[in-house]
Design a protein that fits this description.
2 copies of one chain form a homodimer. Chain A has 2 domains: about 170 residues, NAD(P)-binding Rossmann-like Domain (Rossmann fold); about 120 residues, 6-phosphogluconate dehydrogenase C-terminal fold (Orthogonal Bundle), CATH 1.10.3660. Chain A has 12 helices and 9 strands. With about 300 residues, the first copy, chain A, is α/β, with parallel strands linked by helices. In chain A, the strands form 2 sheets. Chain A has a 6-stranded parallel β-sheet with strand order 3-2-1-4-5-6, with helices on both faces. Chain A has a 3-stranded mixed β-sheet with strand order 7-8-9, covered by helices on one side. The radius of gyration of chain A is 21 Å and the shape is globular. The interface between A and B is large, with 115 and 115 residues. Chains A, B: Pathway: Amino-acid biosynthesis; L-tyrosine biosynthesis; (4-hydroxyphenyl)pyruvate from prephenate (NAD(+) route): step 1/1.
Chain lengths: ~300, ~300
Amino acid sequence: MPVIYEKVALIGLGLIASSMFWAMKRGGLAGHVSGFARSADTRDTAREIGLCDEVCDSIAKTVKDADLVVLCVPVGVMGSVAAEMAGYLKPGCTVTDVGSVKADVIAQVGPLLPEGVHFIPAHPLAGTEHSGPRSGFAELFDNRWCLLVPVPDTNANAISRLRNLWDGMGANVEEMDAEHHDLVLAVTSHAPHLIAYTMVGVADDLRRVTDSEVIKYSAAGFRDFTRIAASDPTMWRDVFLTNKDATLEILGRFTEELFALQRAIRMGDGDHLHDYFTRTRAIRRGIIEAGQDTDAPNFGRQPGNK
Amino acid sequence: MPVIYEKVALIGLGLIASSMFWAMKRGGLAGHVSGFARSADTRDTAREIGLCDEVCDSIAKTVKDADLVVLCVPVGVMGSVAAEMAGYLKPGCTVTDVGSVKADVIAQVGPLLPEGVHFIPAHPLAGTEHSGPRSGFAELFDNRWCLLVPVPDTNANAISRLRNLWDGMGANVEEMDAEHHDLVLAVTSHAPHLIAYTMVGVADDLRRVTDSEVIKYSAAGFRDFTRIAASDPTMWRDVFLTNKDATLEILGRFTEELFALQRAIRMGDGDHLHDYFTRTRAIRRGIIEAGQDTDAPNFGRQPGNK
């Protein structure tokens, strides 16, 4: 595949940025990739493992001459990072991001960018429970979705070029408007994460009572929640604070349903429970047919050795 | 390994029974295994795939001369099955079960068994989202826990023999009393399952609004919930109805915590959220160190092909 951007700058060097670097290298998609992280430790690690062609000590140097700048920082600091770099951007470059919330990022970052810079917010729906510069891998985006959320009147060639980059990194690309994105993600990601965090927190409280039994017997279902609840705390704090309305709306619906099921348990209404559980089974089938998960039992996890 | 029981009878031929059969064959633990399922379709499938040395058309014939009878049916019908078989049990045999709830099963089944039969309730903490006679595999119990819940004054030799069987099938065996079992499982399994069912139900409602986007973009976190919510509806209906008090208690605590986190989101209390999410991260580490889950990103799922 031909080089799509001569120079790419990655701001923030966590799971997504490091996976983008390896995926761009795999596909030969970028001529030169520079990287910056706020923490000196992270920059040292990046240099040690060969993450980025050049790791810079300042944002100004990182974005200099870049054709594409990718903001890979928590949603809560997108605005301050954009303010810091705005004066150093190459005219005509594209600025994008990988944040999990879009309306808030557009409101924060958009007004700070100079005339002539193409701002194309994006969100790759891919991740793992690990974080930091060592957690990335080239295959992370393979067959995952990347949603582009361009603001009105964005240059079509600039969009098409960014689309080609994500396509080259293995993703399926779609466009969506910001409000709709934030609602869909509240359902598929933000509310489930908060619920998993909550259940794990409850179990953690009880763990002190039951002397590690919660950990020992976690394979009965609970351990799946703990994977999600091991995700990066800063990233997720910012997601909930910046997608507040949609998340709270979905959590409100969730609580209503939970109360209805609790009532069915209390009243012994087995038919209600059975009907509900039969309906939810179908959605799993849809996800497997859509190629978004494996049908292997327990996700194909390997059993441990005795 | 030497044969532990000359004849084993499996009542019900779903995921657990079929996995027990293959695990017993792998270890050479049983001389002869007979099996029974209420549905003629299930019996036909079992015969077709060689599940059990003999598939019988009646419970009476299945349990005849058996040294061990294993009830592998939903918790809600344990009592009626026990009543049906009680008159045909071999004197001195052991009756066990694999139900996810123990106090209720003991109350249902215990009084129905004749004098001289050893009743040793059990619960292997292992499963997948699949069900039925084709879903079993020999490795299901490897390095998983099996909890034995013997009632007071149970014959020590009978316990030791059943323990050896589970050990031979790959499990780690522990003993626990019924009330404690039901509370621990409410935390590690029953409440998480109800929560997953609820979230998937909410998303299913919204799916109609958003035209399959929930399925399409499920990899953002939601798909993990759908695996749990694809579990057998009859089994889970019975679990909630028979472990009502402990499940409702844990769900009550869950709702309290969820409301506290929702309030933190609404008030913009980022510190509360960050502290909570940092704490839950630690429990994942404990589970991995205990050998109860893999540290591979996303459970080591294979990425799909584009």
